Amino acid sequence: xxxxxxxxxxxxxxxxxxxxxxxxxxxxxxxxxxxxxxxxxxxxxxxxxxxxxxxxxxxxxxxxxxxxxxxxxxxxxxxxxxxxxxxxxxxxxxxxxxxxxxxxxxxxxxxxxxxxxxxxxxxxxxxxxxxxxxxxxxxxxxxxxxxxxxxxxxxxxxxxxxxxxxxxxxxxxxxxxxxxxxxxxxxxxxxxxxxxxxxxxxxxxxxxxxxxxxxxxxxxxxxxxxxxxxxxxxxxxxxxxxxxxxxxxxxxxxxxxxxxxxxxxxxxxxxxxxxxxxxxxxxxxxxxxxxxxxxxxxxxxxxxxxxxxxxxxxxxxxxxxxxxxxxxxxxxxx
Length: 334
Hints:
Helix 9 crosses helix 10 and helix 10 runs parallel beside helix 11 (182-189). This protein has a 7-stranded mixed β-sheet with strand order 5-4-3-6-7-11-10, with helices on both faces. A two-stranded antiparallel ribbon has the order 1-2. It has 15 helices and 11 strands. The radius of gyration is 23 Å and the shape is globular. The protein has helices spanning 7-13, 19-30, 32-36, 43-50, 54-65, 96-110, 113-119, 123-128, 132-138, 140-164, 182-189, 202-214, 250-258, 280-292, 299-308, and strands spanning 71-72, 78-79, 172-176, 195-200, 221-225, 238-242, 264-269, 271-272, 297-298, 311-318, 324-330. Helices cover 47% and strands 15% of the residues. The mean pLDDT is 93. The chain starts with 6 loop residues before the first helix and ends with a strand. By secondary structure, it is of the alpha/beta class. The longest helix has 25 residues, at 140-164. It has 2 domains: 16-90, Orthogonal Bundle (Arc Repressor Mutant, subunit A); 157-330, 3-Layer(aba) Sandwich (Rossmann fold).
């Protein structure tokens, strides 16, 4: 009589689940989906165009086909499936850049997870010998992948933030760690009289400045190079930090918030549920530790963080995305 598989068996099956993400990474690196978008191809043609070992490529394709990614036609040629579409570079559901980053940087960092468990410090730094920010500043290929991934994430997140955030009577907005400035531009598009400042690291600032100039936002958006832990432009109406605070531990996060010397501080972050139930939120919390040394926080933890920075958490509002808007103001006039 066959033994019925139980909950414990399902859990232990995840131990081998890392194989599929790494095979997806290989497919993304080789650009297999993009090769097949015009129609089915023979293995020999795919091997020639990617430089992959023919017999091994066949094994990779068969393994991915076993989980629904790619399929082999009766004539032996390989074709796309719906499950393979996120591997395409140019597709509304594309996850290719996320897979590329996960398959290399994240994979190696998580391989050193015990460093984080033992020390409370980022495993990425241990695995790569430098922080993720330093890595992206010196590795053009990794930076390009991270930029593309960030832009796709912003495209899903920013409309929800814009819909839920009221700038009120603000005349200036400082976007701390604003990346390419997409969220700031989306906010300013609805408020013609408001000016913006993007604060970024040197390796990001140059790209952002060029992008904003090319898009015609150079007159309304300034780009400033600064380390937010040390200093930020002072005296502005709104300080916006979208998925920035979770990259830092409490000490550095408090320093950044304390440097927001203005009338309003708006933090856009995932807010953890108060309970201890395992969920995607809790997994994201550990991911921030492994990659950055940061953390996700509950509403109470954000209130405490704001308080240490001399701020009062006034409002927490959910959005249609995975993030909430946490609004704070100085406890005393600055």
